[in-house]
Design goal:
10 helices, binds NADP nicotinamide-adenine-dinucleotide phosphate
Amino acid sequence: MTDSTMPTITRTAWEVRLAKHLRAELGLDNFDLVQVQTPEPGAGEVLVRTDYLGLSVAYLEMMRADSHLPIPPWQVGQRIGGGAVGTVVRSNSADLAVGDLVRTMTGWCEYSAGPADQYPKLDPELFPSPVHYLSQGPTAYYGMAEIAKVGADDVVFVSGAAGGVGSLAGQIARCRGAAKVIGSAGSQEKIDYLVNKLGFDAAFNYHDRPVLDRLRELAPEGITVYFDNVGGEQFEAAVVAAAPGARFALCGALATQIGDHENRFPEPDLTAATAKRIEVLPFSTYHTPEQVAAWTEHFSTWLGEDRFVFPHTIVEGGVTAAPQALVSLLQGNYRGNVSVKVAD
Ligand SMILES: NC(=O)c1ccc[n+]([C@@H]2O[C@H](COP(=O)([O-])OP(=O)(O)OC[C@H]3O[C@@H](n4cnc5c(N)ncnc54)[C@H](OP(=O)(O)O)[C@@H]3O)[C@@H](O)[C@H]2O)c1
């Protein structure tokens, strides 16, 4: 890289920290915007400019003092964490060169520095854009392929189908040969998108009519796979509309984990599910190298064959726009996977 193409490195940089733990509704007052000195990489270290941050509803749990996750939640004053992709802008390591595209787990900051082995190198040619590396695909693929084991003849229902995980989960079912894929989402625009752009066979707005009525109309033969991002009424309706022996992959609880609910992850009533011999399969993914590799291989292949769309929204405005972007995500203002453009 010549001097004229070297990225400019600012002396100070913005980062976003947790101002107070989340208790009820997420607001901008949960975040602090802080200006810091751009770090200097030491021996064997690199300086990485964050290019895009990935957002997920799952971050809410990390912001709560009483998190249900088996890992420590973020502390007040700590930088908001999470996955990102970035570019090496200074290198004191033989393992990474200036200009390399890398994955970072350093969270909501403009620059980070650390040992080169903490920044896995990414192939910039594999996908049309770096944001493809921030997809919720490892979760969607693991849930559909490894937990629900979706295949030919399955009649699949995905709730939260226009969101980050759901929009990929439905397409994975289609690519694995499911007989029918049905999605639920919260607006007509999202319903149209699922059917016209993502290849769902049918979709419905869960606000309009009882979910059970819609499932009975759209899947009179019975659902054999349910990928549940929502819980609550949609889970209960899916049980009634399921075929005996159906597999339910329980991924999330959007109906209760967003907002002010006393019980964010209520235990589902399994009486009716048991009578139907439904396999109720809650799962957690931790994006192990194997899970990421399985997804990456299928994602790049399906995109290359023009069988798959990457539904995503890129929010402009830099790292300081990330708090409002997460609030907007929870309000249902975006479609697909959401990332914030920090630099490029
Ligand atoms: N099991 C795991 O290992 C794992 C890993 C990652 C994520 N997750 C979970 O997967 C789920 C999806 O995550 P994501 O990041 O892809 O989120 P997401 O689906 O993109 O979430 C945003 C969407 O949630 C929907 N929503 C908001 N309130 C709702 C309600 N009361 N009922 C139904 N939908 C509601 C809105 O869509 P509408 O306009 O359609 O309402 C909004 O666009 C979350 O529950 C997350 O915690 C699980």
